[in-house]
Amino acid sequence: MSELTILIKAMLRERRDIAFAIAGGFVAGVGGVGLFSASGYLISQTVFAPPLYTLIVLISIVKLLGLLRAASRYAERLYSHQATFSILSRLRTSFFAKLVPLAPSMLRTRRSGDLLARIVGDVESLQHYFLRVAYPPIVLVMVFLATVLFASAYSIWIAGLLVLGLLGAAFVIPAVILRGQRNIRGRVRLHRAALSTNAAELLYGFLELKVYGKLDERGQQLRRHSDVLADEQQAAGIHLLNGQSLHVGLTYLVTWGVLVLGGYLIVNDSLAGVFLAMLVLAAQTVFEEAGAMATLPSYKQDSEHAASRLAETVQPGEALPPQPEGSLSDDAPPSVELNGVSFQYADEWRPALRDIHIRMAAGSKTAIVGASGSGKTTVLELLLKLYAPAQGQIRMNDKPLNELHESSIWKHAAVVLQQGHFFRGTIRDNLLLDEAGLSEEELQVILGQAELSYKKLDDEVYERGENLSDGEKQRLALARAMAKGGRLWLLDEPTSSLDAITEQRIYRRLFKLAANDTLILVSHRLTGLESMDQIIVMDHGTVVEAGTYEELMDKRGYFYEMKEIERQLIGEAG
């Protein structure tokens, strides 16, 4: 199926290890059949008191076959698992390569718990495709053909019985299992994703649920999801055991068939009695290789369902465009220009941006202001190449943005987003994300510039910054941007949780630090914008005004009205 194309390509790249695994599996299977056949023949020969050298030869053959079987089985396990781990490594790399460009939009439309279940569980499920689906039928056919040829040398009827047993093990039993398996494995995976999703939301929202008295209710809901998943897993396990039981039953049925048929042939002088035990043990042993066929439908459906969910996540059918090779200059601050840019988020009914025209000179300071939902943040996301504009063109240093590699933009940008992520570790760990190599003294100075001088570099930071206030998170995000540096500063509401005095002190230091750089500030606050080279006023995805602070105030337009409303609110609050 199309969803497994990447997996098959990864298997082809590991064809050397796969070939060794198949060879090892074939030798181990044939060696096992030969071992027990020789053992049966040895037992039969002892009845007739053969010469000592005959027993010595037979015993030596049995020992050699035992060693050969053990060594080849070890090689089969070694190379098959080595190939599997390499295939999984390639799958993860390929999947994340497709996932990263889609991450911003994906986080808007998918619940994090479900996404985590796909990234971890579904990728892991594909490890069974080679070991449990693609590999066993190949070895089974090879070993069975060798065994049938061996048996046909003594009795064509017993060889035919083995062929009938092979058909039953390879087709009839898997078909019976598949009949009841179609919906069970899919339900298990969906319920596992639902459990993962609800568990993640319970952990993320623990405090709010506790405060509002809903923790027990959500806990009960999580337990219900867990119980449903356990029931579905139990049903899947029982169904799998039923298939294995059918295989064991078929094995003994064929073995008894060989015994009865062999006895009949002996009575009719069509088979020497000394070979009966050999053929019975050969028949019983060869069906060990067919045991994997009983579980093949389950693993096949599991792998296909996992591949389908991964394909749905990254949409592999849509080829990603090749990455451009252009880059920004390391020495100069970039100019930024948006010409007729329009953009609409997926599943949104209205455009986020409509025919935007903005020009920001190199080294200039630009503020983008407007009400919530006016498209301010979207402009920064487009500049970072998190999304591509639907219409129009964005240029940096007069180069089209689609000709610049995204890593080049990120390398030269000091970014503060509205929702910055903080990793579990220390203040130092969260400052040096790009291994900037700053000294302890330099880092402490940066903390002081961000009004965090009371923090030590070894102070602990919890996951997602849970032990930091909103204001401390914003200041730490600003300190991180200061530590990284860059000729392009993209700041999205960097001080919305700070008081006015702290905000003014940080802005003075920040503008001094970025004096010769291009700085774009997104803010809903209108204070402290007097020193900006230009102010872009947005509303409902369009630019309604643009100019310096004095020009906009003299115009007495939209910006002036917003400023008057802010003054009144500040006056009433005072």
UniProtKB/TrEMBL annotation:
Main location per the UniProt record: membrane
An example molecular function term from Gene Ontology annotations: ATP binding
ATP-binding recorded as keyword: yes
Topology of the protein relative to the lipid bilayer: Multi-pass membrane protein
GO BP terms: cell redox homeostasis; glutathione transmembrane transport
Pfam families hit by this protein: ABC_membrane, ABC_tran
Boundaries of every ABC transmembrane type-1 domain copy: 19-296
Gene name as annotated: cydC
The name this protein goes by in its record: Thiol reductant ABC exporter subunit CydC
Region Disordered, residue ranges: 305-333
Keyword Membrane carried by entry: yes
GO cellular component: a single term: plasma membrane
InterPro entries: AAA+_ATPase (IPR003593), ABC1_TM_dom (IPR011527), ABC1_TM_sf (IPR036640), ABC_CydC/D (IPR014223), ABC_transporter-like_ATP-bd (IPR003439), P-loop_NTPase (IPR027417), Type_1_exporter (IPR039421)
